[in-house]
């Protein structure tokens, strides 16, 4: 089992997550860029992902949306890819979608999400840096409703991993 | 004070190694300014300046009634900062554990999926 994700704060607007995976870099890249694979792991327990559309090329757009299985609430993220370098670097500008946005781009400053992958001896190190528009945006990103929904479901998630192991 | 303003003060206070060392010392029990200045090659006024930053961030408090005016740690504010980072970590970690399982699956049956090539 790889070491748990590490979180650091490189500046007052950024959050950086570092994690290793026991898999070649190309496979980790595929898991981040192929919609059929993305929807298998990216999300929140108790939430389905009815929308996962990704046009992975510079200037291409993406839209992710989750729907709560119990109350039907929806939220998501949408954005534009600004740097695509298979299989080492993926950068996109991301906007939070509280649930009522179609493909319309919101105004305001996006969060810049930068994913970097490196491989050594078959182990891939992932560094994901989120650069928010402001300090406040960084802190508020964790206080959105989605995190509450997740926390109720941790035990179910643990069971799923046990079943999968 | 809004939680994000409070976190700003806390993280700014924690950004300095001397202040982190002071917090580590106070984690073992209260101490006076003289006692805190002891292990550092720093004047007492310089230490006092650091203590003020920690105080403003709510990370330490002063017992004004005691003559020695000892400083003590306020663990609640520190916990708040750690909790915030921990929530970020949990969000990612839950996703990445699912990704571990998926990567394992994909490697177990490599013929099942064609990898994309550049």
User: End-to-end distance of chain A, in Å?
Assistant: 11 Å
- Identify the quaternary structure here: heterodimer
**How would the global form of chain A be characterised?**
globular
Number of alpha- plus pi-helical segments of chain B: 5
Instruction: Report on the biggest sheet of chain B.
Output: 2 strands, antiparallel
User: Would you report the number of β strands of chain B?
Assistant: 2
- CATH fold label of chain B: Arc Repressor Mutant, subunit A
Order of helices and strands of chain A: EEHHEEEEEEHHH
Poorly predicted sequence stretches spanning 5 or more consecutive residues of chain B? none
Helix-strand topology string of chain B: HHHHEEH
* Strand elements of chain A, count: 8
Count of spatially separate domains of chain B: 1
Describe this structure in words.
The complex is a heterodimer of chains A (165) and B (118). Chain A has helices at 25-33, 35-41, 135-140, 145-151, 154-164; strands at 6-8, 14-21, 47-54, 61-68, 74-85, 89-97, 111-120, 123-131. Chain A is of the alpha+beta class. Chain A has an eight-stranded antiparallel β-sheet. In chain A, β5 (74-85) and β6 form a beta hairpin. The model of chain A is unreliable at 144-165 (pLDDT under 50). Chain B is mainly α and 118 residues long. Chain B has one domain: Orthogonal Bundle (Arc Repressor Mutant, subunit A). Chain B has helices at 3-14, 17-26, 33-37, 44-56, 75-108; strands at residues 60-62, 71-73. Chain B has a two-stranded antiparallel sheet with strand order 1-2. In chain B, a hairpin with an 8-residue loop joins β1 and β2. The longest helix of chain B has 34 residues, at 75-108. Chain B is elongated and about 70 Å long.
């Amino acid at each position: 089992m790889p070491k748990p994700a590490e979180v650091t704060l490189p500046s007052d607007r950024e959050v950086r997550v570092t994690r290793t995976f026991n898999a070649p870099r190309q496979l980790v890249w595929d898991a981040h860029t192929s919609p059929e694979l993305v929807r298998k792991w990216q999300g929140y327990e108790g939430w389905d992902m009815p929308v996962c559309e990704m046009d992975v090329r510079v200037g291409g757009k993406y839209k992710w949306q989750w729907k709560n299985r119990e109350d039907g609430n929806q939220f998501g993220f949408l954005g534009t890819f600004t740097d695509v370098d298979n299989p080492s670097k993926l950068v996109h500008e991301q906007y939070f979608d509280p649930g009522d946005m179609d493909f319309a781009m919101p105004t305001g400053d996006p969060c810049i999400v930068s994913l970097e992958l490196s491989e050594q001896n078959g182990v891939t190190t992932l560094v994901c840096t989120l650069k928010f528009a402001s300090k406040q945006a960084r802190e508020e990103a964790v206080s959105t409703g989605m995190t509450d929904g997740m926390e109720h479901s941790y035990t179910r998630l643990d069971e799923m991993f046990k079943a999968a192991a | 004070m809004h939680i994000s303003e409070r976190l700003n003060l806390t993280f700014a206070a924690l950004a300095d190694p001397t202040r982190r060392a002071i917090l580590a010392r106070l984690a073992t029990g209260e101490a006076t300014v003289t006692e805190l200045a002891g292990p550092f090659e720093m004047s007492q006024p310089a230490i006092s300046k650091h203590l003020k930053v920690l105080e403003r961030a709510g990370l330490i408090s002063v017992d004004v009634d005691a003559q020695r005016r000892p400083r003590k740690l306020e663990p609640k504010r520190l916990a708040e900062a750690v909790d915030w980072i921990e929530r970020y970590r949990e969000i990612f970690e839950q996703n990445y554990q699912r990704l571990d399982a998926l990567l394992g699956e994909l490697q177990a049956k490599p013929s099942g999926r064609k990898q994309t090539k550049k």
